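Input sequence (480 aa), recorded before submission:
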Amino acid sequence: MSRKAFYIGIFLAALAGGMVALGIFSLIVGNPNSQSSYNSISEHQKVALTNLEIKDIPDVVVPDGLNFVNAASKATIAVVHIKSKYDGASSVNGFFRYRTFPSAAKGSGVIISDDGYIVTNNHVIDGANSVEVTLHDNRRYEATVIGTDPTTDLALIKIDETGLNFLLYGDSDDLQIGEWVLAVGNPFELNSTVTAGIVSAKARNINILADENRLEIESFIQTDAVVNPGNSGGALVDLAGNLVGVNTAIATQTGTYSGYSFAVPVTLVKKVMDDLLEFGIVQRGLLGVMIRDAALQSQIEDVDVLNGVYIITVNKNSAAEEAKLKSGDIIVGINGRKVKNTSELQEMVARNRPGDEVEVTYIRDGVERTVTATLRKFNGAAEVVDRPEVAIMEGATFENIPESESRKLGIYGGVKITDIQSGKWKEAGIKEGFIITEIDKTRVRNVNELRIILESKVGERINILGISADRKRTYYSMKW
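Predicted structure, token format:
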């Protein structure tokens, strides 16, 4: 082949290839419906948007059951930010002196009256030297602690102000599984944060509260509304904007929200707040029984029913003993309301004070019966107690120490012995001026707590920790 023929062949091949490519391109461009290129897709979208008129968009109406605006507007102005401050203090342990530095904890609270009463969690303000409240409009106040109840993790504080927005109590008994609720609080210091969820369960016990006398009440509302650190003490509200719970805990392995949150039901909140306001302490009425879920007991022995609360033992001089309840009875109702587990029973009973009568429905030998029980205190008494400031027990006079003295000593409350006559305290070698801070590793912050602890220790040897008049930490042991 000559060189000329070779070049002619290459030219013809190139020409043929170009014509084929041009034909394919013409086919693609010539198809107006093709979306194989970015430009053609963009053009089609532009045409569609140009041709769409506003009248083609239907009006959007949010159903009442999904409209959170009204509830959120009521709740956000009634939820506050709380900052609890802890001063540094020195303490001596053996030969070493320890120093703690000033710190702060943060949470939320709910205004429940227009004159400044606020409910929050006990763990938000527990042991604080001062409590600062910030309203939704950024006004700040120093709060006074009216009373606390570690057994429900609730506390009542007050600021000096009037005309405040507050939340009305709802009814947590009427809450239905699957009902929408809102959680309002200050997570991560993000003020007035609102999240939505549904009621996932009721009467949940998650074993986060501990009381030496086993008087803790855990009957939480479980929701999937997002709650995080800082939400504690905030509001759980229904879609009418009424308070149905106080957010208290989350289920987490990381310290942040992992799917479920828990709130103290408002029926219990209301009772605790009323007690703290009227008496300064919670008035706990008790049946006086050791109990277990009937379903759990059924794994040990045959029981008549599976939904209810099995009585293991009945305490001496208790309301249950007086009402002739006995071991093996299964409680299935309180005051006409069904009771399926221990959490529900404890909550129902805890709504009452010593001396209140409750109707107990129970099953014995397969027969359902009802009896009236008069609730009693831990020591068997049936009367409520007034706010205690001074008490006399076994020849010794006890008084609450002032907050200023508590701060100076670096302790969180305590009870001072101001006078000792003949009796157990004097026999143990304790002198006037001694401040009791702990009994058997249980903190003693006031006269009432001292009384409650001692009532549960009758006949036992107790170890007492405190500070002597010369400011030395001292231990005593005595038979109570």
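Checked by second reader. The CA atoms of residues 144 and 158 lie 5 Å apart.
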